[in-house]
């Protein structure tokens, strides 16, 4: 069985958000267009979201109380649970999504495999229950959460393909390094899809 994982296509990670990635809104549109033509190719479509606690440093993940974020381990507050910034970007058609994973509740969390579904299961459990053997990964940001999620998927033995046309990274150098790391880990990296 083949599944699609849509990583963190949220308002705060798109243009105008508190931690915007250039091209994020376009990625949301590309994913929706892709799903209109290809959703039937997948037995399961999963989407993850950062879902951080309000009024908390989330174990140092947020720079708070006037501290400057280092953009490595600490970040500006983003994707606070229940906020507009944590919502999926409006260009992403949510009707295709069968399973929602929330991550980062009270702590830093980059991989969708660190989150839980609305019914309390891990992503690994969801994929195992659905007998998924191949996973396509898209979303934001290539060099952080897409990278971490794809690497964790690969560790489970699933065949992983990252569809870069539907990803957006923070910086060219770190995105290139992430794609090289993914390939080294045995993930396929596909730059264009029909």
TrEMBL record:
<comment type="pathway">
    <text>Cofactor biosynthesis; nicotinate biosynthesis; nicotinate from nicotinamide: step 1/1.</text>
</comment>
<dbReference type="Pfam" id="PF00857">
    <property type="entry name" value="Isochorismatase"/>
</dbReference>
<keyword id="KW-0479">Metal-binding</keyword>
<dbReference type="GO" id="GO:0046872">
    <property type="term" value="F:metal ion binding"/>
</dbReference>
<dbReference type="InterPro" id="IPR052347">
    <property type="entry name" value="Isochorismatase_Nicotinamidase"/>
</dbReference>
<dbReference type="InterPro" id="IPR000868">
    <property type="entry name" value="Isochorismatase-like_dom"/>
</dbReference>
<dbReference type="InterPro" id="IPR036380">
    <property type="entry name" value="Isochorismatase-like_sf"/>
</dbReference>
<keyword id="KW-0662">Pyridine nucleotide biosynthesis</keyword>
<dbReference type="GO" id="GO:0019363">
    <property type="term" value="P:pyridine nucleotide biosynthetic process"/>
</dbReference>
<comment type="similarity">
    <text>Belongs to the isochorismatase family.</text>
</comment>
<keyword id="KW-0378">Hydrolase</keyword>
<protein>
    <recommendedName>
        <fullName>nicotinamidase</fullName>
        <ecNumber>3.5.1.19</ecNumber>
    </recommendedName>
</protein>
<feature type="domain" description="Isochorismatase-like">
    <location>
        <begin position="3"/>
        <end position="192"/>
    </location>
</feature>
<dbReference type="GO" id="GO:0008936">
    <property type="term" value="F:nicotinamidase activity"/>
</dbReference>
